[in-house]
TrEMBL record, chain A:
InterPro entries: ABC_transp_permease. Keywords: Cell membrane, Membrane, Transmembrane, Transmembrane helix. The keyword Transmembrane helix applies. It comes from the Bacteria. This is Bacterial inner-membrane translocator. The keyword Phosphoprotein does not apply. GO terms for cellular component: plasma membrane. PANTHER family: ABC TRANSPORTER, PERMEASE PROTEIN, GUANOSINE ABC TRANSPORTER PERMEASE PROTEIN NUPP. It is a multi-pass membrane protein. The lineage of its organism: Bacteria, Pseudomonadati, Pseudomonadota, Alphaproteobacteria, Hyphomicrobiales. It comes from Roseibium aggregatum (strain ATCC 25650 / DSM 13394 / JCM 20685 / NBRC 16684 / NCIMB 2208 / IAM 12614 / B1) (Stappia aggregata).
Automatic annotation (TrEMBL), chain B:
Residues 27-301 form the ABC transporter substrate-binding protein PnrA-like domain. It comes from Roseibium aggregatum (strain ATCC 25650 / DSM 13394 / JCM 20685 / NBRC 16684 / NCIMB 2208 / IAM 12614 / B1) (Stappia aggregata). Keywords: Signal. It comes from the Bacteria. This is ABC transporter substrate-binding protein PnrA-like domain-containing protein. The keyword Signal applies. InterPro entries: ABC-Purine-Binding, PnrA-like. GO terms for cellular component: plasma membrane. Residues 1-23 form the signal peptide.
Length: 362, 354
């Protein structure tokens, strides 16, 4: 018997919904095998990894907190990717946004009032957007490759942060340790009363909903999608590719910058030499796992965050190496991408005599 | 669906049974910044954990998280341990300071121990070791053994612990050869084998024939071994990685401290304090002296005994790089001056990054 992939005439809507579930199932099976091989109980490993984080309030909140910056950045990136602009530099835009946002509490620590936090967020958006506009302008003016320029600016941004926390912005009372002073309460993003969640989560969900409306219901959303799929058709409709490049980069950068400001203000309360465990890069995965759709991105961001929290849970509770946790994360992504094949292709089992078998529904 | 439900129930039962079987008196938990297999800083902390586990047997349960990035992930990792019933949590990197303090506020009944920081609270103690004592000894060895009169120093971050180590190294070297020259390269990382190896190569190319490092990987020693230079192990005895190149190593032995503090938690006598111990308490240990002539070994052992007997390497006369006097003849710097050190001694061929 032979297994064949047969191209479908059109996208299978059923498979578009089913393939992530199949992928999660396959990941669970593979993870169970890995747990058994490494001498751990596979069932309790799977429970700790995928379910326990959802059963306790604090770990559920921790998952949301981890997912929030990923979702916010991925929402912005989806505008870029839908319009065929390849912004790989969200990590740098996140960092520069955080720097702009932190400038207020660090340079003017006495400016403490109700306007402090909103101003920080506005600065964060501006900082991220300006940083993102550099590769955008280079692309529209000089036709440079935005993949390279946006990526290289990530390293510039992280070295700029490094310089500032070791030099001019170092905490004067911190014994030369590389970190800024702690932010005042007025510059700290507070938590939703009665929970341990910061306001970053509802702000992010609001942004995702607004973005979904813009993409689905407005002319701008139509422009973004048309220019991504067929720039020539778009130009007949009077859309400008250059303006859209600037717009999409500024949007992605602004949202990444907002995420950066909310992260330093809500979670860290100070600037450190590293403020992101790779959020800007992981968000690229989140954007595509979520199929460049704001609601899909929320789900994808949450699942990816769950895999981090679950990875920690199996480490601390069962003594599983963090390498195994990383392998399971990698397997999840691998299976999701592999199962996407089923959207475009169907599996056919071919018998020995060459008669076409029943199409499998898996 | 039903079988999935069954599996879930079974898993819950397993998990519950698992935790009931491990009813130890005290649970001690550790957060590491690097992988336990770094053969340096985190490895030594894990060795300390294992030593404590061996010492207490069934009375102690331990857990650890490795490669926890300093930042928001650290706070979550510490809080996880506090919620999972850890009685004492050791956070073993400077960058965990503020997250430790934050979580400690929420869990007043849990004891926290933060390595290398300076903030304490009622339930947060700090601990660190006088690594500079060992650095004085290896400075002396370097000056005796170097043919070029130049040593190279691979430094991580310009924080007081690292700066005082560089100064102690040069003071030791100057006690043997007043004209000794020291070149410093900052790699801005605790653990980056690639950068550390490049720094070692650059220093050897600039004439250094002895390399000292305040970074955690074995890469500089391996480069020294390849190039026929010599060096010193960092945090851990790295002789197996450079059998002909390593003279000795400054070994961090955290086991005795971990056993002492866990015992205090068991006895209910644990109190917040700042521990800063060195050769005399056995928290800093010199690895066997190898690849050295007998007279140099004798000198090193003599200095080691002198420091263990209470002598402080930062005893005057000490002149700062800018020519001002840091300590007059016979005057010893106090702990605060060493723990907050942000100046070079005279004779270092580098400008301190400020």
């Amino acid at each position: 018997m032979r297994v064949e992939l047969v191209k479908r005439k059109e996208h299978s809507r059923k498979m578009a919904l089913l393939s992530p579930l199949i992928a999660v199932g396959l990941t669970a099976i593979a993870a169970g095998i890995i747990f058994s091989i490494s001498g751990h109980n596979p069932l309790s490993g799977l429970y700790k990894f995928f379910i326990e984080p959802l059963t306790q309030e604090w770990s559920f909140n921790a998952t949301i907190a981890k997912a929030t910056p990923l979702i916010l950045i991925a929402c912005g990136l989806s505008v870029c990717y839908l319009s065929n602009n390849w912004n790989i530099g969200a990590e740098g835009q996140f960092i520069v946004g955080a720097l702009f946002g932190s400038a207020l509490p660090i340079l003017m620590p006495d400016f403490e009032n109700a306007a402090t936090l909103p101003l920080m967020m506005v600065f964060g958006v501006i900082g991220g957007a300006l940083w993102a506009l550099i590769p955008a302008v280079l692309k529209t003016r000089f036709n440079t490759n935005e993949i390279l320029t946006s990526l290289m600016l990530v390293y510039v941004a992280s070295l700029l942060l490094d310089y500032l926390v070791r030099g001019p912005w170092r905490d004067p009372g911190g014994y030369n340790f590389p970190e800024s002073a702690m932010f005042s309460d007025a510059a700290t993003l507070s938590t939703i009363p009665g929970t341990s969640l910061s306001f970053a989560a509802p702000i992010t969900v609001t942004v995702a909903i607004v973005l979904a409306v813009i993409l689905g219901k407005t002319l701008k959303g139509f422009e973004i999608r048309v220019m991504g799929e067929s720039p020539r058709a778009g130009s007949f409709a009077g859309f400008s590719a250059k303006k859209l490049t600037l717009f999409s980069f500024a949007t992605a950068g602004g949202l990444a910058g907002l995420a950066g400001t909310m992260e330093v203000s809500g979670a860290l309360n100070q600037l450190l030499p590293t403020i992101s465990p790779g959020y800007g890069f992981t968000a690229i995965i989140v954007a595509f796992l979520g199929r460049l759709n704001p609601f899909g991105i929320i789900v994808a961001g949450f699942v990816l965050a769950l895999s981090y929290i679950g990875g920690e849970a199996v480490q601390s509770a069962m003594g599983v190496s963090n390498k195994i946790a990383s392998v399971i994360q990698g397997l999840l992504l691998f299976f999701v991408l592999a199962c996407d094949t089923l959207i475009l292709y169907r599996i056919r089992f071919v018998g020995r005599r060459g008669s076409a078998g029943e199409a499998s529904h898996v | 669906m039903k079988s999935l439900l069954k599996a879930t129930v079974a898993a819950v039962a397993f998990a519950a049974a698992g935790s009931a079987a491990n009813a130890a008196d005290v649970k001690a938990c550790y957060i590491y910044v690097g992988p336990v297999g770094d053969f340096g800083w985190s490895y030594q902390h894990d060795q300390g954990r294992l030593e404590a586990e061996k010492h207490f047997g069934d009375k102690l349960e331990t857990a650890y998280l490795e490669s926890v990035p300093e930042g928001p992930d650290a706070e979550r990792a510490i809080e996880r341990f506090a919620r999972e019933g850890c009685n004492i949590i050791f956070t073993t990197s400077f960058g965990y300071m503020n997250p430790t303090i934050k979580v400690a506020k929420k869990f007043p009944d849990v004891k926290f121990e933060h390595a290398t920081g300076y903030k304490t609270a009622d339930n947060v103690a700090t601990y660190n070791s006088k690594f500079h004592e060992g650095r004085y000894i290896i400075g002396q060895i370097a000056a005796k053994q170097s043919k070029t009169g130049v040593a190279g120093y691979i430094a991580s971050f310009p924080i007081p612990e690292v700066v005082s180590g560089i100064n102690a190294f040069l003071l030791g070297a100057q006690s043997v050869n007043p004209d000794f020259n020291l070149k410093v390269v900052w790699v801005n990382s605790w653990f980056d084998p690639g950068k550390e190896a490049d720094a070692a190569k650059a220093l050897i190319d600039q004439g250094a024939d002895v390399i000292s490092q305040h970074t955690d990987s074995t890469a500089p020693l391996q480069v020294a071994q390849e190039r026929g230079a010599h060096g010193f192990g960092q945090a851990s005895d790295m002789i197996q990685f450079a059998p002909e190149a390593q003279y000795t190593a400054i070994v961090d032995d955290w086991g005795p401290y971990y056993i002492e503090r866990i015992q205090e938690v068991m006895d209910g006598t644990w109190e917040s304090k700042s521990t800063w111990a060195g050769l005399s308490e056995g928290h800093v240990v010199m690895a066997p002296y190898t690849n050295l002539p007998d007279d140099v070994v004798a000198m090193a052992k003599e200095t080691e005994a002198k420091i263990a007997g209470g002598w402080e390497p930062f005893t005057g006369p000490i002149t700062k790089q800018d020519g001002t006097v840091a300590a007059e003849e016979g005057v010893t710097l106090d702990d605060g001056a060493i723990l907050g050190m942000n100046w070079y001694v005279k004779g270092i061929d580098d400008k301190l990054p400020q």
